[in-house]
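Task: sequence design from structure.
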């Protein structure tokens, strides 16, 4: 199976590729075009002693020479997946499916190489399917819960707000961290439903705390790119604000830089609408993507969160301190506020306080705690 890099697979390329492939065929081999730039070679009655890897290497070598067509030329990288019937697969369909998994692995390994199918490839696929099934069930059985992490005002030490962080309590009572299920929820689109539940639960909690404590606590909620791009996201937010009765000035949505890179143009109008509703918008993990002072200028962002990879080494690395200092200065000049994440030591706290970082968040103050835990922290 072939892979075109940067070329549309037009007819010229197609003919050249097919002809070069067919030159490699033995008399019992068959060449099939699967569509696009993908081909399959079916080799029947292969001598067991024959080294199939050797054959794959010959195929790869055959494409080192550029293809020439209509006065142009192109270099193809060849990513191959190999599977054997009946050793691996029981049916022709399965054989093709396993070849496909192996090609995928070859591409993962950096392309222009081959991989032989092995059972672990389908195992990981089955594991994924099982996790997806469990995730659907978890949604139906309401196995998710929110934990909260306080954000401290650096001048006074008062808790000004919390970040809501989702957890999954599975049927065995085990607590699963978001890193282990958010990516899958995003890939499958389930994050849209889950995210709506997270947003509503967080807003409801904010309103309850206000009734119990007599003060508004800023509620920050993480929003995934998939949610932001889903139809009607701003309307969903508007509806939840209305249903829960939260003062939108105390709701902050956290988005990350990486979301903006591919789709600045489609994201900006959504953010504008969110600002019209009156919610705050924080740019999370700042400094980890392609930053991007441009985002600060063009987008209606109200707050910036400096990633913990910068605060981690504030004490030891002079350069990190300089970067953090300039970010804080710049953000203040733009009339935005800034939070530093990942504060774990007193020394980091002192430095950030000196640099006039507005708000601080990290294990030094508290780990994420459950609803009861945060209420106790808010009460003091
Ligand atoms: P994030 O938004 O950057 O959240 C901060 C993460 O850093 C949290 O991990 C938090 O526990 C951890 N953290 C905070 N302070 C410290 C510290 O001082 N030291 C260290 N070592 N870690 C600290 P968590 O809860 O595992 O969340 C991981 C990521 O999962 C989040 O990164 C966020 O991207 C995503 N996530 C969490 N909850 C949600 C959610 O409700 N919705 C969406 N879409 N994503 C979520
Ligand atoms: Ca391809
Ligand atoms: Ca966050
Ligand atoms: Ca973050």
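Answer:
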């Amino acid at each position: 199976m072939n892979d075109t890099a940067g070329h549309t697979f037009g007819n010229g390329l197609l003919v050249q590729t097919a002809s070069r492939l067919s030159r490699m065929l033995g008399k019992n081999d068959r060449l099939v075009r699967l569509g696009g730039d993908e081909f399959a070679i079916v080799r029947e009655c292969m001598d067991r002693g024959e080294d199939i890897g050797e054959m794959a290497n010959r195929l790869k070598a055959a494409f080192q020479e550029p293809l020439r067509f209509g006065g142009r030329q192109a270099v193809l990288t060849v990513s191959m997946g190999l599977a054997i019937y009946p050793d691996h697969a029981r049916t022709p369909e399965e054989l093709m499916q396993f070849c496909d998994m192996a090609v995928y692995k070859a591409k993962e390994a950096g392309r222009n190489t081959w991989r032989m199918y092995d059972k672990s490839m389908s195992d990981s696929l089955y594991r994924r399917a099982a996790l997806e099934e469990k995730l659907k069930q978890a949604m139906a059985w309401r196995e998710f819960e929110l934990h909260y992490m306080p954000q401290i005002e650096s001048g006074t030490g008062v808790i000004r707000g919390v970040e809501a962080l989702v957890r999954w309590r599975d049927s065995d009572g085990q607590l699963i961290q978001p890193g282990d299920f958010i990516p899958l929820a995003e890939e499958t689109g389930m994050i849209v439903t889950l995210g709506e539940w997270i947003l509503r639960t967080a807003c409801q909690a904010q309103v309850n705390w206000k009734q119990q404590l007599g003060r508004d606590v800023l509620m920050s909620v993480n929003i995934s790119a998939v949610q932001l791009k889903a139809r009607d996201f701003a309307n969903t937010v508007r509806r939840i604000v209305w249903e829960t009765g939260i003062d939108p000035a105390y709701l902050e949505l956290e988005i990350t830089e990486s979301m903006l890179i591919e789709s600045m143009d489609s994201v900006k109008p959504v953010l504008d609408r969110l600002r019209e509703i009156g919610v705050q918008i924080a740019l999370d993990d700042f400094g980890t993507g392609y930053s991007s002072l441009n985002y600060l200028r063009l987008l209606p962002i109200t707050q910036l969160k400096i990633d913990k990879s910068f605060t981690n080494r504030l004490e030891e690395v002079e350069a990190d301190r300089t970067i953090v200092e300039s970010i804080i200065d710049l953000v203040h000049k733009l009339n935005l506020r800034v939070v530093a994440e990942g504060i774990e030591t007193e020394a980091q706290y002192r430095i950030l306080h000196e640099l006039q970082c507005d708000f601080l968040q990290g294990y030094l103050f508290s780990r994420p705690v459950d609803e009861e835990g945060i209420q106790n922290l808010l009460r003091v």
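The pocket of C2E (ligand 1) is lined by residues 149, 164-166, 177-179, 182, 195, 198, 222, 224, 284-285, 308, 341-344, 361-363, 368 (CB under 6 Å).
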